[in-house]
């Protein structure tokens, strides 16, 4: 999958699966940027068909519930939805 990288401080591997039209996804990106956290993201709705399939497979590893924004932290934790407090914890303390 082709992720876009956003530079910032390294608090572990953060991958954001987002939709380009989702206000909560935009708020998540804004928060991560404000917190100066490095992360990779993909706007799933703008991805090629093959990539969309791979994204869904990756997201399904965390259960059947797929919602956006969808953040994977260090391949250990999944944050579904805009959970500002948890995102701030990850930014402060790492995964």
How would you summarize the topology of this molecule?
Elements: E1 4-6, E2 14-18, H1 23-34, E3 39-43, H2 49-60, E4 70-73, E5 77-80, H3 84-93
Parallel strand pairs: 2-3
Antiparallel strand pairs: 1-3, 2-4, 4-5
Description:
The protein has 95 residues and is α+β, with helices and mostly antiparallel strands. The protein has one domain (4-93): Glutaredoxin, CATH 3.40.30. Helices cover 36% and strands 22% of the residues. It contains 3 helices and 5 strands; from the N terminus they run ββαβαββα. The protein has a 5-stranded mixed sheet, covered by helices on one side. A hairpin with a 3-residue loop joins strand 4 and strand 5. The longest helix has 12 residues, at 23-34. It is globular.
Key terms:
Glutaredoxin; 95 residues; single chain; 5-stranded mixed beta sheet; globular; alpha+beta; 36% helix
- Termini distance? 22 Å
- Mind telling me the CATH class? Alpha Beta
CATH superfamily: Glutaredoxin
Strand order of the largest sheet: 1-3-2-4-5
Q: At the third CATH level, what is the topology name?
A: Glutaredoxin
Structural domain count: 1
Query: What letter string, H or E per element, gives the SSE order?
Result: EEHEHEEH
* Rounded average pLDDT: 94
> In angstroms, what is the radius of gyration?
12 Å
Second rung of CATH, namely the architecture: 3-Layer(aba) Sandwich
Q: Based on CA inertia axes, which overall geometry fits?
A: globular
């Amino acid at each position: 999958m082709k992720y876009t990288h956003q530079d910032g401080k390294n608090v572990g591997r953060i991958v954001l699966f987002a939709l380009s039209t989702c206000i909560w996804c935009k708020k998540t990106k804004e928060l991560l940027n404000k917190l100066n956290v490095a992360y990779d993201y993909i706007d799933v709705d703008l991805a090629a068909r093959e990539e969309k399939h791979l994204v869904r497979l990756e997201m399904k590893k965390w259960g059947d519930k797929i919602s956006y924004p969808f953040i994977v932290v260090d391949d250990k934790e999944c944050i579904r939805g805009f959970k500002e407090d948890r995102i701030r914890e990850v930014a402060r303390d790492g995964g």
